[in-house]
Amino acid sequence: MAHFNFPLDVTGYSLVRFSRKQQADGDSYRRQVAAAETFCREEQIPLDMSLHEADIRKLGMSAFTGRHVVKGPIRKFLAGIDNGIVKKGKSLLLVSEWNRLTRQISSDALKLTLELMERGIGIIDLQDRAYYTLDRYNADVGLQLSLQLKISMAHQYSKNIQHNLKAAWEGKREAIVAGRGKPTKASPAWLTVREDGTWNAVERPREPTQNDPRTSELWAIPVDDRTRNAFRAIERIKADRFLRLGKHAIATRLNTIDPLPAFRGKNGWHPSAVEKLVRNEALRGVSQSYIKVEIRGDTKREKVGGPQIGFYPRVLSDDDWYRMQWPSDERQARGRRTECTLNNLFAELFKCSCGAGLVRDNKGSKWGAYLVCSKSRRGLCEHKTRHDLAALEAEMLMLLSLFDVSRLVEKANPHADRIAGLEAEIASKQKIIDEMAEGFAGNAPPAFFKRMQTMQAEVDAAKGRLTELKRNAKIVEANHSQDSHAEFCAMVTAMANLEGDELYRVRKKLDLEMHRLIDGGEAVGDELLIRLRGLPDMLQVELVVAQARFIELRLVVPSNPLWAENEHGDFFAITREQIFENPKVRAMLFENDDPTGAFEAFINRERQQLA
Length: 611
Ligand SMILES: [Zn+2]
Hints:
Layout: E1 11-14, H1 26-43, H2 50-53, H3 56-59, H4 67-71, H5 75-82, E2 91-95, H6 106-118, E3 121-125, E4 130-132, H7 134-139, H8 141-159, H9 161-177, E5 201-205, E6 218-222, H10 225-242, H11 247-256, H12 271-279, E7 287-295, E8 298-308, H13 318-324, H14 332-338, E9 350-352, E10 358-361, E11 370-373, E12 387-388, H15 389-402, H16 416-440, H17 446-495, H18 500-517, E13 518-524, E14 527-532, E15 540-546, E16 549-556, H19 561-564, E17 571-575, H20 576-581, H21 583-589, H22 595-610
Parallel strand pairs: 1-2, 2-3, 9-13
Antiparallel strand pairs: 3-4, 5-6, 7-8, 10-11, 11-12, 13-14, 14-15, 15-16, 16-17
Helix pairs in contact: 6-8, 10-13, 11-12, 13-16, 15-17, 16-17, 17-18
Residues 352, 354, 356, 373, 375-376, 381, 383 line the site of zinc ion.
């Protein structure tokens, strides 16, 4: 090892020591310190770390007056030169990455380097062990060119400074997760930070469940009243979102029914706060970090890295979180409908034969509200039939309680929400991976690759879960619709004895169920033909209602040649009398007094014939 002819009593100062800590991701930092230590050991010179620990205010301002320098990482070193702690002619600045010298443009960095040399400071490049002093620099064109080239290249690298910040951020998060470091003001509203830097919620691993086998995640458990209230609010918002309530309705309910304090301020819940909370991914433990980036004087907020999964203790499962989001196609109008007082369970379902919708009205009626053609109200349609709303509702609830039509109509997938949630999760993560990959275009730091691999593994795991979920869905389907029918019947029965919020919630569920089962309907004269959601090309169930009284149930098979030749024409009809009023007919018609089973058996026979 060739030794330099250093002056006696020379001291080495590691530049990395002056860099902002958070900018140094663990590996790079250790590597650079190790390089400085190795160099000093080999050259048998002391490595001075004390300046790094010094209080900058006591060192005083530097005579290197450029703003760029004052802000740079080397500020302490410069102040040390000024006040004599760093001795001229006896100090070496050990540089392993030139971009750390200054984050400013390359001409400034070169100027600073020359100025240091002019002040008698030697500079060592730890990478190639080049030694720069003013004398050596002036005497050697090769040294001049190499220095300029290094700084220029470092400048190119500095343009990608975000890479470093991203890596640094990874380190910070890991430190916080590992219990070191401190969560900062970035904590979400329901978590407050205590003196010791922990969150005011206990974190514990959760038992794996069938649908979520991950046990590594920490779940939040509130430990004080404020947090407990916050978590209760989150639970209520979740439940309301599952009922597809909008932000206005949710805020009103939080403020008026068994009120809970808002996270911020004393004026109660505001719809925008509800929406912000619902959309907040921190609920499922995810954090997105931002940095302020200055571009030609403008400060912009930019994402740093991808979302950090598992940063915060979890409050909601991914499935629940995705399920309570607003679908991108949930239209305003529909949102408004869900926030009405639920006095019409058939809102936006039926049309007059003129094409206009049937709407609720109660003017000029002694008996209460009714459905009527919206155009006829304005004298633009001849069809003035009023369909008694209360009677229609009672009739439909009774009918749908008796028949488990959900077994006949398009199968409602019990896992649909979770499947949709998983699919959304996969899509969003894949998008992040793609965007990150595009953003880095081949020169990504190792931390990024690690992150991307982790995320890709998560996507793959989610895909695996999705496949399994879809398969389970098929198996569970039959049983579940039975359950949901039982639930439906229970709700109908219970409704009579409920009031206030309980009644509201039950009616809301019934409203969702009505809109799930009913595809639409058309009013012709006194009759209302209600179409249930059918199996495409296989079966359509229609209910005929006249003057709000159920008359006939029809099984319509649209394009089945076998049906066309059938004595019943293209539909199989069962009358009200057969169903309700003649037990003997009913017993004959429906094996085991199971009308739904009879339908199913009937349909299956037809399917077998077709096959
Ligand atoms: Zn009309």
